[in-house]
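Journal club prep, notes for RB
We'll compare a predicted complex against what the paper describes. Inputs for the zinc ion case:
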Amino acid sequence: MDWLLTFLIALFGPGLLPGAAPAPGGDGGVTIALDPLGADEEGPLPRVTPARGPNPPLVVIDPGHGGRDPGAASPHVASPEKDITLALGLAMRDALAATGRVRVAMTRENDRYLILEDRYGIARRLEADLFISIHADAAPANDAAHGATVYTLSEVASDREAALLAGRENSADRIAGARLSRDPGVNVILIDLAQRESMNISADFARLLYREGAPVFPFRPDWHRFAAFVVLKAPDIPSILFESGYLTNATDAAYISSAQGRQQIAEGMRRAIEAHFARRLVLGRAG
Ligand SMILES: [Zn+2]
């Protein structure tokens, strides 16, 4: 999709690459989010693990929350969500680095606060091929809810529960007092095209993750859902948000915070990512 972005830059000029211009219609609408390459994006970039072969793809793994944003708490394990997501993310990176088929970068490797735009901003600056945000779910009113869920971006959150979850995960930015910048002058339709292709590839990856993961660790019956998470809104990078399990469910909480659970989830993720890029390579050759 580089051609499309090049075209957009030619059309609008680099100064006009928009911040976020919300689609009309309010709640749940797809936000068009192309960060300007300005002062916000000049921080140091994370290190990238090496990989074998020419032009290995790059995956950015984003452990949710961190620093002053602990995420959800569990009544069953002491670790807050931010620690569980970091341990899971590091296990995924190590599993991918061990086989060396893809390059990996982490948005954070320690207990550090990042605003949501910086998370996918890092992926955009690195020109990543896939962005994976790691989280752990919570359903305080229903401790029977359990299993993993893969979220991809949609124009409208699939239901009220998903919309509420998106509200919770997105609220980290209100903690920082940061706001999305807005540029009403952007041509929404053209950027929407790029976003649509990313959404389709993201949904393909979600299916692969279920195929590779479900034999090993539990998924919810409705394992693929749609929501308007801010971190999924890089229009040019296929992105998923992975809720690894429920901190409010005793079995899930123990599993996702255990060494065995981490290992199994990381292996399922590794197989899915490697299959995804093997498939993309074949499709690219066919095309
Ligand atoms: Zn979370």
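Talking point for the session: The two ends are 14 Å apart (CA to CA).
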